[in-house]
Amino acid sequence: MTQRLSREELPRLYAAIAQVADLFLPVKRAGKTNFALWNTQTEVDLDTLKTAKSPKDLFFPQCEPLYTCDWREGNLTVTAQALAERDFVVFGVRGCDLRGLDVLDRVFLSDPVDSFYAARREHGTVIAFACREPEESCFCRTFGVDCAEPGGDVTVWLTDGTLYWRANTPKGQALTDRLDLLGKTDDADEQRLAAEQTAAREIIDRLPYANLFLDGWNGDATEARFASPLWEKLYRPCLACGACTFACPTCQCYDIRDYDTGNGVQRFRCWDSCMYSDFTMMAHGNNRTSQMQRFRQRFMHKLVYFPANNDGMYSCVGCGRCVEQCPSGLNIVKVIKAFEKEAKK
Amino acid sequence: MSGCNCSGRDVLIPQVGVITDIRTETPDVKSFRVCAPGGGKLFEHMPGQCAMLCVPGVSEGMFSITSSPTVQDYQEFSIKRCGMLTDHLHSLSVGDQITVRGPYGNHFPVESELRGKDLLFVAGGIGLAPLRSVIGYVSDHRADYGTVDILYGSRSKEDLVKYDEITGVWSKADGVNVHLTIDRAEDGWDGHVGFVPAYLKELGFSSDKTALLCGPPIMIRFSLETLMEMGFSKKQVYTTLELRMKCGVGKCGRCNIGSKYVCKDGPVFRCDEIDALPDEY
Lengths: 345, 281
Ligand SMILES: Cc1cc2nc3c(=O)[nH]c(=O)nc-3n(C[C@H](O)[C@H](O)[C@H](O)COP(=O)(O)OP(=O)(O)OC[C@H]3O[C@@H](n4cnc5c(N)ncnc54)[C@H](O)[C@@H]3O)c2cc1C
Ligand code: SF4
Ligand code: SF4
Ligand code: FES
Hints:
The structure holds two protein chains of two kinds. By secondary structure, chain A is an alpha+beta fold. Chain A folds into two domains: about 200 residues, no CATH class; about 120 residues, no CATH class. Chain A contains eleven helices and 14 strands. In chain A, strands 3-2-6-7-8-9-1-10 form an eight-stranded mixed sheet. Chain A is globular, with a radius of gyration of 22 Å. Helices cover about 20% and strands about 30% of the residues of chain B. In chain B, helix 3 links the parallel strand 8 and strand 9. Chain B has two domains: about 90 residues, Elongation Factor Tu (Ef-tu), domain 3 (Beta Barrel), CATH 2.40.30.10; about 120 residues, Nucleotide-binding domain of ferredoxin-NADP reductase (FNR) module (Rossmann fold), CATH 3.40.50. Chain B starts with 14 loop residues before the first strand and ends in a 6-residue tail after the last helix. Chains A and B meet through strand 4, strand 5, helix 3, helix 6 and strand 11 of A and strand 6 and strand 13 of B. The site of one iron/sulfur cluster (SF4) has 12 residues of chain A, from helix 8.
């Protein structure tokens, strides 16, 4: 059942949700929009289509403690970090980023389950935000994401004057049941919503990268794609800065390190990048010595290895962040297009 | 490996282990026995599996469990000194505590493909560590396997890990032949001199055996070539891969090659499976 709320009432909606759980939503700070905790002072920004960083941070934080080791009377003690136990709501997750969570679920919820991530997934309710005006860098459509019908625990659509709200899961319904400011929709609302969706899909269909050519990228393609001479040409501008991996909603590589707290040692994990030269360094050598190999690994993993292990699911969601953020103008679109050109020669 | 978190402990959270025995094997290898603080093993494992040992504040690293699963009281690791963590481990004393998490990875197929087979172990240097667990297991289930040949080589006599056990126990066991070699002749050594692959060729084993091969990459490469010349197929040869590891559970991405995670899908691979991986190991 779809419900509605007038756009002016959004601050009341945020306040009502925040009564129930911590609310995270896109907030503009110093010119950049990212997910942040809401309070009455925050400058919510629903106009920017994509947050600079994806919301993966809320489930797989850039940095998180795992456990602390300390010595008590000569004995080493290990104290595990407590798992998340506060309920939270993430409002405004785009379809691409929501698919990004599906990808992370495949990684962290598969055997053996990562309990830190699992606890956050359990306590988090995701309100997906349908896109009205997809941008040039968007190609979610290539990977089968429907930005006009993104899913999530709740889906919201925002038109000029109205927010439409629909609960999709028991979790989403539970949240909905605790909000009393949502009103009923009528036939006219349904028609407007359907028209909005059609319009959004029409826009995305006309975007330059919306329908990329994925033939030849799949779990069986390892040998041919790995050995292609194209990588040698493609990787050259890469600075190995890792910006693409940090912005990406599906990149999940991490490091585990120590932090000396003064009376013990905290072991924490933090995001890492396969683009870095020391990522695979060992005492006796490195199995990826060149940036070409590291560059190739990132894309082979997203387009070949991950699908091979996950029923064909790609680990790119077409969010376009790497398209917008790489200082050298490299991105997955360039890679896919280069192989398309080669295949159609 | 079970994905069950019913114990409430995430797979990344280690246990405390106490070092109960340290043996100097060679100038740069020491073996460490590790128990739970209250005694007994920290966990059950299978031959070929590994564990993450950590000195908090120093570093953490993956090591093969070299003791046999049939040993009840402890787990043993043979560790070569080569950097920050391993230097520190070598400086520890009996009674010191470290953290241990595991076991990780797959294991040699001792209950399936290896059963009933004549086994040929080929090891170089510290490569004996993962194989010793299998040799121990096979010795304790002797009736389940055919003949056992152990070909083991090192730079010099003093670099042979577990020399006392090899000459004192394995050489004397029924149906077990031990063939030792060192790279260069030295005083007090009347055994074979030469590299492992050359000795392998010289000994000329029949190709109906199943081979388990571990050691430095160059030794593995030449030994595998020799085995192929001797008529072995890649399906008859098992080895282990060693890549940089952090999580040990197939999630941090570090040990990924092709669609495999060496920490989870390996470290044990049949050589024909390795051929199917992109050449990045
Ligand atoms: C599956 C597996 C089994 C292993 N079994 C044994 C064993 O039985 N005995 C033994 O002595 N060594 C073994 N190793 C190698 C051992 O993990 C490294 O020698 C050790 O981590 C080096 O750490 P360091 O801090 O002393 O060296 P440094 O060079 O100071 O280490 C720097 C970093 O590189 C990593 N690293 C360095 N060398 C390796 C390596 N070869 N493999 C993986 N990561 C490395 C370390 O974890 C550390 O984070 C094994 C490695 C793997 C992957
Ligand atoms: S592809 Fe671009 S963003 Fe990614 S590491 Fe290379 S230079 Fe940085
Ligand atoms: S590879 Fe680029 S487009 Fe694909 S999900 Fe990652 S950041 Fe988005
Ligand atoms: S060590 Fe983390 S994926 Fe293998």
